[in-house]
Amino acid sequence: MDAILLQVLNGLDKGSAYALIALGLTLIFGTLGVVNFAHGAIFMIGAFCAVTLSRILSLSFETIDPTKVDFLGNPATIKTPYVEAWFGPEFGGALIDWAVPLAILFSIPIMIAVGFIMERGLIKHFYKRPHADQILVTFGLAIVLQEVIKYFYGANPISTPAPEVFKGSFDFGAMFGFDPNVIIYPYWRMVYFLFAAVVIGAVFSFLRFTTFGMVVRAGMADRETVGLLGIDIDRRFTIMFGLAAAVAGMAGVMYAPILSPNYHMGMDFLVLSFVVVVVGGMGSLPGAVAAGFLLGVLESFASMNEIKSIIPGIDQIIIYVVAIIILLTRPRGLLGKRGVMEE
């Protein structure tokens, strides 16, 4: 029982990332009909927003401390971050420590701008082109973006720590009556799961309970009729592209302490998240979220040594095996609309 609970917990944070990226992919496909293979790169850019803000807040200047000497006997130099000099050591230190959560505010306008530029500058020209053309052009854009990140940040992963208060782990085992130190789960992974739940709830509430969201959902169902009512549905869909980019960017920001950002992390998550979209159902927002968590948990169980000893390498292919089974038995996906992907 303790092993089962531990694997469920381990699958939640990765499933949260899958669900958030797949949610943005599904929003774009459902509104614009575009298969956006550059969406994983947006997740990567979000992670590097956290890296960038952390570096900005850590910028420091050097002063000489005559009371201390280095190993050569020279007066020692002390590095003092500018934010500590401006706001005091306590508040300035807190800003540096909380760089990752603060990067959410830093990333939102950047990601919305990136989404607008991508949609208006490139993707709008491929609305009426075949999905194969959309995949090729957005995949090429993803490669360009990851090479830009590699040029400016290097090829090595960059450690981006969580705030000090969230370091360490929570003993779930003791809470459920198991032996202490049996089921240990990092605090930040719990934070990430809660963050994902809040963002997913906010997106669904926005689409369901706001006039803007209702128009968007109507446009997803029948774009032509909504346009005939005099509503500029294209403009609203462009805004949704920016919001989808913001969701993926925030997911990347909060995932930075879990997986040190690197230039190829977008591709790593994109392929898996696209499989999540197919399993959940193309264009189905609930399907994307449900499949994200389901496949995250399945991948966690498949990584158990007991399972890998029976089927070696199953942890690397379990998601694709599930996708094949779903496509063979239910081509429209778990919660997809009838007729989608079934022609």
UniProtKB/TrEMBL annotation:
Q: Where in the cell is it found?
A: Cell membrane
Q: Which GO terms describe its biological process?
A: amino acid transport
Membrane-traversing stretches: 15-35, 42-61, 98-123, 190-216, 237-258, 270-298, 310-328
Q: Does the keyword Coiled coil apply?
A: no
Q: Which InterPro entries match?
A: ABC_transp_permease (IPR001851), BCAA_transport_permease (IPR052157)
Task: Spell out the GO cellular component terms annotated for this protein, sorted alphabetically and separated by semicolons.
Answer: plasma membrane
Membrane topology, record value: Multi-pass membrane protein
Cite the entry's keywords alphabetically. Answer: Amino-acid transport, Cell membrane, Membrane, Transmembrane, Transmembrane helix, Transport
Q: Which GO MF terms are attached to this record?
A: transmembrane transporter activity
Q: Which domain of life is it from?
A: Bacteria
UniProt record similarity statement: Belongs to the binding-protein-dependent transport system permease family. LivHM subfamily.
Please give the name of this protein. Answer: High-affinity branched-chain amino acid transport system permease protein LivH
Organism equals Pacificibacter marinus
Which lineage do the record's taxonomy fields give for this organism? Bacteria, Pseudomonadati, Pseudomonadota, Alphaproteobacteria, Rhodobacterales
What gene is behind this protein? livH_2
